[in-house]
Design brief:
The protein is α/β, with parallel strands linked by helices and about 300 residues long. The protein has a single domain, classed as 3-Layer(aba) Sandwich (UDP-N-acetylmuramoyl-L-alanine:D-glutamate ligase), CATH 3.40.1190. The protein is built from 11 helices and 15 strands.
């Protein structure tokens, strides 16, 4: 049985590495895509995870199918597209941190449509998880997410949603309308501070969580990077300090947080405990390069938590 069903866009990753002895800058091939990263993070914490997407019938798609199989992510509902390719992105590292360059137009995931959604799989999950990227890649993908949310709500399945706003995908006004419409139908909102500021015009964390609670979710978890996490319900809120670490690459840290948080909720943790666990997992994921390889497994997270 799939407990957590993640939905969105996987992307092959080429991540810039530190200069070699001759000054050359090589790129490490890997895997990315926010909800795919979150699915793997959740699986590494012990959750039973499935993924909804489309990949090309190409080397990239085959690589993802092999990755998910290795990680224990259920792929029975992944569409293998004969026409459209698997998307790619590059990660560059500079004085301002990591920067992304995307090649995703016309990808297989962007051709995903409501007719591809396996309604029965959605109904049988415990949590459906999607993001702003899941909807920003195309109109048909946006409609597919809304369809899945409608099916989930009709079956009493919790919906979790990460804002993950990418300006290159769509203008702020449209992104805000679509993302906030999805969050208004969600049980759990997982906005990032920078995303929320761009989408709402607000900068104060308490004002931001008030905004998202007003939309309807019972739980809002505001990810604030180095400033920690603000957990809020209509009756209480709690600030959780960031877990100490020495980061080298923050790619996928927010995805690791979301996947780990949802996995711990499914395991029965109270939201504050799940958020502390997820903060630790996210911090550990920044200590290596790439989106997927540094995602820690449960035993590593538990050992780190016990050491502080």
């Amino acid at each position: 049985m799939i407990e957590l069903l993640c939905m969105g866009e996987p992307m092959l990753e080429l991540n810039q590495q530190p200069p070699g002895s001759a000054g050359e800058r090589l790129f490490l091939a890997g895997h990315g895509g926010d909800t795919s990263n979150a699915a793997i993070a959740a699986a590494r914490q012990g959750a039973k995870v499935g993924y909804l997407t489309a990949v090309g019938r190409d080397a990239g798609g085959a690589s993802f199918m092999e990755l998910w199989a290795t990680e224990g992510v259920d792929t029975r509902h992944v569409v293998q597209d004969k026409v459209n390719p698997t998307a790619v992105y590059l990660v560059h590292h500079g004085p301002k941190g990591h920067e992304f360059q995307y090649y995703r137009q016309g990808s297989a995931a962007s051709a995903y449509a409501p007719t591809h959604v396996p309604d029965e799989a959605v109904r049988s999950a415990k949590i459906l998880y999607a993001s702003g990227i899941s909807q920003g890649i195309s109109n048909s993908a946006a409609d597919a997410v809304f369809h899945a949310i409608d099916v989930a709500r009709g079956a009493g399945v919790r919906v979790a949603y990460d804002t993950n706003y990418r300006p290159r995908l769509w203008p702020a006004a449209r992104a805000s309308a679509v993302i906030h419409a999805a969050i208004s139908q969600s049980s759990i909102a997982l906005p990032g501070l920078d995303d929320a500021t761009a989408l709402t015009g607000l900068s104060d964390p308490d004002a931001i969580v008030d905004f998202y609670l007003h939309l309807g979710p019972a739980l809002v978890v505001l990810k604030m990077g180095g400033a920690g996490t603000l957990l809020a319900t209509p009756t209480e809120r709690l600030r959780i300090a960031p877990f100490p670490c020495q980061p080298v690459d923050a790619t996928g840290a927010g995805d690791t947080f979301c996947g780990s948080f949802l996995a711990r909720l499914i395991a029965g943790d109270a939201p504050p405990d799940a958020a502390r666990y997820a903060a630790c997992a996210a911090a550990l994921s920044t200590t290596g390069y790439g989106a997927v390889p540094p995602i820690p497994r449960a035993e590593t997270v538990l050992a780190a938590l016990a050491s502080v």
